[in-house]
Amino acid sequence: MRTSSINRETKETKIVMELNLDGRGQAEIDTGVGFMDHMFELLAFHSVFDIKVKCVGDLKVDSHHTIEDLGIVFGDCLLQALGDKKGIMRYGQMTIPMDEALVTTTLDLSGRPYLVYHATLPMMMLGNYETEMTKEFFKAVSDHALMTLHINESYGENTHHIIEAMFKSFARALKQAVMIDEKNKDLIVSSKGLL
């Protein structure tokens, strides 16, 4: 089973997260940020990962530390669960429409962290979620999962729809990338022999 469990505690956040890459899309999420709970639930459903998250953050300040640290821990969990990456497809891409919004995510579980992020988010806040933290979340995931990650909004007007399309396209691309190629399940998909 490709699973991981991480408990991370700082002066700003306490996070416990469990991840199962071969799950059924089940989510138990409590981050203290309602919109982020919703995004993690979508991430679990569309990737078909099982994700459990409990986070207590310094929300009296703002959502910055909570969202960034959730990205760090999710990236760490993903890297841990992937192990030596034998047999994975490595690459994933998905374009998702969400009403008027269209977002494409392309990723490579390359061992090289890099984020390209192009999006315009009209609203600054969704509940107690600061929308500029969307980029910081994906940057933290990319850095800690050692993933090359490109997220491109083609167009959109509604901030909720744009971010939702990001998370759904990310989840579906990630689902592709972590799939095991049964014909090559003992191979690492790299000419270098290492990811």
Automatic annotation (TrEMBL):
Q: Which GO terms describe its cellular component?
A: cytoplasm
Keyword Coiled coil appears in the UniProt entry: no
Which SUPFAM superfamilies does the UniProt entry name for this protein? Answer: Ribosomal protein S5 domain 2-like (SSF54211)
For this protein, what is the EC number?
Answer: 4.2.1.19
GO BP annotation list: L-histidine biosynthetic process
Alphabetical list of InterPro entries matching this protein? IGPD_sf, ImidazoleglycerolP_deHydtase, ImidazoleglycerP_deHydtase_CS, Ribosomal_Su5_D2-typ_SF
The record's subcellular locations are:
Cytoplasm
Q: What's its top-level EC category? A: lyase
Q: Which pathway does UniProt place it in?
A: Amino-acid biosynthesis; L-histidine biosynthesis; L-histidine from 5-phospho-alpha-D-ribose 1-diphosphate: step 6/9
Gene3D superfamilies the record matches: Imidazole glycerol phosphate dehydratase, domain 1
> What family does the database annotate?
Belongs to the imidazoleglycerol-phosphate dehydratase family.
Q: What is this protein called?
A: Imidazoleglycerol-phosphate dehydratase
| Biological classification of the source | Bacteria, Bacillati, Bacillota, Erysipelotrichia, Erysipelotrichales
Gene from which this protein is expressed: hisB
